[in-house]
Design brief:
30% strand, 4 helices, alpha/beta
């Protein structure tokens, strides 16, 4: 009994504190999961909207969505691409962003800044991966993939901000096209490549395989 009393006292004093710590950690985990779910839903909505836009391309263009290409530089061994469009005038790697905020950055930045306004009107900021670097990495992976299959085609990168309320401020002159909500189809159709692909249909088949 002499040993049991201190144990009971310890349990009464400490366990409630541990319980509140557990509840606090659980609440943080739930918030993080909800935020991740919101980001995924927003991304999916952006890709759905972009697919509707790309569906208006002429029949000579092939559209591939959520393409996984082997890449030694990727964490999972693959490079995931939102869209790859294969057409008579080239290949286009399209990275879709569905942010509805003001975004600022340059090609050299590691991350871009997202400026937001909270529900109570309080401004705050967060960060996103540099989409230009993302696209350039995807182009590198796709180029190697095509070389292994003896395809020769010029690949262009496009960062497409699909949300109509998004405002993008890019410092300097980017090496890939940055489009805000409009002009995606015209950008693709009117593009003049350095050299066109020899067999777009075969390239699309190899990518889809």
């Amino acid at each position: 009994m002499a040993i049991g009393v201190p144990v009971v006292i310890f349990a009464i004093a400490v366990l409630p504190q541990l319980w509140w710590l557990f509840l606090g950690a659980l609440a943080i985990l739930v918030v993080l999961m909800l935020n991740a779910g919101t980001i995924k839903r927003a991304g999916a909505q952006g890709e759905d909207a972009t697919l509707k836009v790309l569906s208006t391309l002429p029949d000579s263009y092939f559209i591939l969505n959520q393409l996984m290409i082997p890449s030694a530089g990727g964490r999972s061994g693959f490079s995931e691409m939102d869209f790859v469009v294969v057409g008579p005038n080239g290949l286009f790697v399209i990275e879709v962003k569905n942010n509805n905020s003001r975004i600022a950055g340059s090609e050299e930045d590691r991350e871009w800044v997202i400026h937001k306004v909270g529900r109570r009107g309080t401004p705050y900021s967060s960060h996103m991966k540099n989409p230009i670097k993302q696209v350039k990495g995807q182009i590198w992976a796709l180029t190697n993939f095509l070389k292994e299959r003896r395809h020769k085609a010029w690949i262009d990168g496009i960062v497409y901000f699909s949300h109509p309320q998004c405002q993008v401020e890019v410092r300097g002159t980017p090496s890939v096209r940055i489009l805000q909500h409009r002009g995606l189809v015209d950008c693709i159709v009117n593009h003049q490549p350095k050299f066109p692909p020899r067999n777009p249909g075969r390239i699309a088949d190899d990518l889809a395989a």
